[in-house]
């Protein structure tokens, strides 16, 4: 005989069963996202659903700044105007010199037969909000695939490089900052042309040049700019200034700690640079075999890690 | 049989629940300076509704909210979904017990639940290869638990009866 309870006590499956179901669903999603990146489309659609709330989230800040502007005094405005005018004058001189220098550089490059550098297009964007994730350094900007942003584009502000677009949703894009632990920027020391790769320092908000030879010619105060050999960042954008060099006897390598020049954690407006690089495209099958190889190498590295 | 110091409330409206979740998501998307010490408002509101209305708000809602948080913040898809599902389960499991205590002891229960939630997220990120972000991440859940009495008062406001209604 069936001893099921009357239908008005029905509460569906037991909570523990439900927890098991949803936990396994989440774990499956986690694995698919972390290992295979198959769910980017789904992510874009969910992000689109969250967009109105994100947009709304910036409203209080906008409002506060507008109210602040309203209460700015005449004297403040006059002083600011003067400052801006002086700055504009200085910039216009720089710009004139830059044009002359650019023409000269182009001519010289033509003389030595080097590929001509293409102009960099810049799209202005506003930082919507900072990703709510203490484990990584990411910001979201209000330009997405609809405005022509593509993954991999460098992002800069008026001082220097801020980061790189890592994910593009229809209306917003995700920018990984220079200081993110997984972010690497190919750089060059302005003083002597030394090339290096700057890694993000994570929570410290600094950049690091790791694995430098202890006799490398690098000093405190050296300015680092993008070297442009990666084909992603345009050459010559300011990145960071060296603030500390650690040469310790017990380490084989020296480590230089650098402070980013751009307003990584404060600016509100950034430029998304679209670099039309003149690099020749990779051959089809070569690219394929390389990804295959890296995947194999990666899995091998994982295996050795596990065995350790 | 009713827990101490409780009054009979009006039935909850679905619009109140939806509005509170929208408000919590909005608070989470505000540009906070250091996200480690800011409480997770969505987790707090979710815990509240799971304790008060376990038949209306359950693991399905929690999971959906988690996915929304994941995609909106650009973290691993499923991280918040897993953490919120576990939070909802704990809250529903403890819902009969929590309401018998006063606000302070309720907040202690909630602190434990939020810490477990944060711990699950931490485990997921450590497994994915991220470094430990420092002990400051424990401050967020504790701050959230301290907001519990205020959240209770605020979220029950639409269900309170007026003085005149109570007299009748």
Tally of contiguous helical segments of chain A = 5
Mean pLDDT value of chain A? 80
What is the percent of helical residues of chain B? 55-70%
User: What share of the residues of chain A does DSSP label as strand, in percent?
Assistant: 15-25%
Backbone CA Rg of chain B: 16 Å
Helix-strand pattern of chain B, N to C?
A: HHHHHHHH
* Class computed from helices, strands and strand pairing of chain A: alpha+beta
Residue ranges of chain B: pLDDT <50 for 5 or more in a row? none
Which value, in Å, is the CA radius of gyration of chain A? 25 Å
Terminal residue distance of chain A? 58 Å
Calculate the terminal CA-CA distance of chain B, rounded to whole Å: 21 Å
Descriptive report:
The complex is a heterodimer of chains A (308) and B (168). With 308 residues, chain A is α+β, with helices and mostly antiparallel strands. Helix content of chain A is 37%, strand content 25%. Chain A has five helices and twelve strands. Chain A has a six-stranded antiparallel β-barrel with strand order 1-2-5-4-3-12. A six-stranded antiparallel beta barrel of chain A has the order 6-7-8-11-10-9. With 168 residues, chain B is an all-alpha fold. The longest helix of chain B is centred in the C-terminal third of the chain and has 25 residues, at 103-127. The radius of gyration of chain B is 16 Å and the shape is globular. Chain B starts with 13 loop residues before the first helix and ends with a helix. Chains A and B meet through helix 1 and helix 2 of A and helix 1, helix 3 and helix 4 of B.
């Amino acid at each position: 005989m069936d001893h099921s309870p009357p239908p008005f006590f029905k509460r569906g499956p037991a909570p523990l069963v439900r927890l098991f179901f949803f936990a396994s669903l989440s774990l499956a999603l986690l694995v698919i996202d972390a290992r295979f990146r198959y769910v980017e489309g789904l992510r874009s659609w969910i992000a689109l659903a969250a967009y109105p709330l994100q947009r709304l989230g910036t409203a209080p800040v906008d409002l506060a700044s507008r109210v602040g502007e309203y209460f700015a005094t005449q004297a403040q405005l006059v002083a600011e105007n003067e400052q801006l005018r002086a700055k504009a004058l200085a910039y216009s001189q720089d710009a004139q010199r830059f044009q002359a220098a650019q023409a000269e550089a182009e001519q010289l490059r033509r003389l030595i037969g080097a590929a001509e550098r293409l102009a960099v297009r810049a799209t202005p964007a506003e930082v919507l909000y900072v990703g709510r994730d203490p484990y990584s350094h990411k910001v979201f900007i209000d330009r997405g695939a609809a405005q022509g942003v593509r993954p991999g584009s460098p992002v800069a502000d008026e001082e220097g490089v801020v980061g790189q677009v890592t994910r593009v949703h229809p209306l917003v894009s995700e920018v990984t900052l220079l200081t993110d632990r997984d972010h690497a920027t190919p750089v060059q020391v302005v003083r002597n042309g030394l090339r290096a790769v700057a890694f993000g320092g994570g929570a410290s908000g600094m950049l690091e040049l790791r694995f430098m030879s202890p006799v490398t010619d690098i000093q405190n105060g050296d300015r680092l700019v993008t070297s442009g050999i990666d084909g992603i960042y345009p050459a010559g954008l300011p990145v960071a200034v060296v603030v500390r060099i650690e040469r310790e006897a017990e380490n084989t390598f020296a480590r230089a700690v650098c402070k980013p020049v751009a307003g990584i954690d404060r600016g509100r407006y950034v430029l998304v640079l679209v670099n039309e690089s003149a690099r020749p495209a990779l051959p089809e099958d070569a690219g394929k075999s390389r990804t295959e190889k890296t995947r194999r190498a990666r899995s091998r590295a994982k295996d050795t890690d596990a065995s350790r | 049989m009713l827990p101490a110091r409780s009054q009979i409330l009006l039935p909850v409206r679905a619009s109140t629940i939806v509005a509170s979740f929208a408000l919590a998501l909005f608070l989470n998307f505000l540009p906070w300076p250091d996200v480690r010490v800011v409480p997770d408002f969505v987790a707090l509101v979710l815990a509240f509704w799971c304790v008060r209305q376990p038949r209306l708000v359950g693991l399905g809602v929690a999971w959906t909210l988690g996915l929304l948080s994941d995609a909106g913040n650009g973290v691993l898809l499923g991280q918040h979904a897993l953490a919120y599902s576990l939070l909802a389960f704990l809250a529903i499991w403890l819902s009969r017990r929590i309401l018998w205590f006063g606000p302070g002891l309720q907040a202690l229960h909630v602190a434990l639940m939020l810490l477990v939630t944060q711990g699950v997220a931490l485990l997921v990120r450590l497994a994915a290869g991220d470094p430990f972000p420092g002990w400051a991440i424990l401050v967020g859940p504790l701050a959230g638990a301290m907001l519990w009495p205020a959240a209770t008062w605020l979220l029950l406001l639409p269900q309170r009866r007026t003085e005149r209604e109570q007299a009748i």
